[in-house]
Amino acid sequence: MSKTSAPTQSPAKRGALFPIGIGIGLIALMAMLPLLNISLPGILPTPTYMPGTLALLSLCMVFAALALSYNMLLGTAGMLSFGHALSFGGGAYLLGMVLRYLEMPLIPATAVALLGGLVIALLTGSIANRIGGVPFAMVTLAFAQAGSVLVRRNSKVTGGEEGLSLATAQVPDALVGVANTRNLYWVLLALLVFVYLVCLWVDKSQLGHLVRAARENEQRVQVLGLRPYTAKVIVFVIAAVLASLAGMGYLLLQSGTVPRAVSADLTITVLVMVVLGGVGFRWGAIAGGVIYTLLDQRLTVLAKTDAIQALPDVLRVPLSEPLFLLGTLFILVVMFLPGGIAGTIDKAWARARHRSAGPAVGLTALDQAEAADQQAGPGADTRP
């Protein structure tokens, strides 16, 4: 009696489950960090359970979510936007104004602000996507500059240059104050996971396949009878709404917002995050957002240390400027890691799998040829 062996998972299926397991493990670890006493000197200012570190990690998650939404535009649809900060800052300002002037509770105010962000995204996206390439980037930049001017000039509504503070009376007490930083951290972690899942859904859907095809050859997609313009507008709106959500998280975390949240400078910063992490890689956008935010915050502290201040001027001046160091890092990544962090790791992983799977591929080919001979029968010619 022959024994049937238990079915085993194929290497491809195991390879697909591996990143899922890593992702779930990382989410679980991040969720437990506020309950753990982990110290990373030089990276985190305090142990992980303290409000200072939780606030820094929360800011990293906000910008990771923003980078994910921008990666959907640039990496998936191939749209180079210089106005993505309009959605981020628009979400922050809209929520802040609804809370302050309409005195609505947080949840309904979030829905109203999201609706307003969706309308703005639909208007700007339908106009900007009439053209492509550099003109598209310039149109989005013009919209962002217009939004920045409106924010800065309407001081009675938006607070002007001083920014708009959070109306804490309309926010649940569990999300207000330094003592509740842990709760806000968990909310922003859930926000990051939600943004990632939406980006994953878009990438795997027919919509994602269509905009990627349009990115490669839009004219050919039109010849096939499809409508790439509609698909690009939908992706633009989804990315803008996700950026608005990140802006709302920023408002809650910072207890207010400032005009820089709407400026084109922030869009360029997010572009650097995505390029640093790897364009087209979701986890790369998260890594780029986290690494850039950590460096931006911690290099500022490093520049004020006695060791840096004691250096000669030729070294002290550049090392005291975090933007100089971040710019240098960006240049080095573009020169030596053109695929970003994720692209470089992905290529190395693919080469390693190719080497390890080489003999197996050959044996599989021999097995398939033998099976074909048996099916053809004796005397049959199976040569191509």
Automatic annotation (TrEMBL):
List locations, semicolon-separated.
Cell membrane
Q: Please provide the record's keywords in A-Z order.
A: Cell membrane, Membrane, Transmembrane, Transmembrane helix
Q: Which domain of life is it from?
A: Bacteria
CDD domains per UniProt = TM_PBP1_LivM_like
Q: Does the keyword Cell membrane apply?
A: yes
Keyword field contains Iron = no
Residue ranges annotated as transmembrane are 20-40, 52-73, 79-99, 106-128, 184-203, 233-253, 265-295, 323-345
Topology within the bilayer: Multi-pass membrane protein
Q: What is this protein called?
A: Branched-chain amino acid ABC transporter permease
Query: Which species expresses this protein natively?
Result: Brevibacterium otitidis
Top-level taxonomy: Bacteria, Bacillati, Actinomycetota, Actinomycetes, Micrococcales
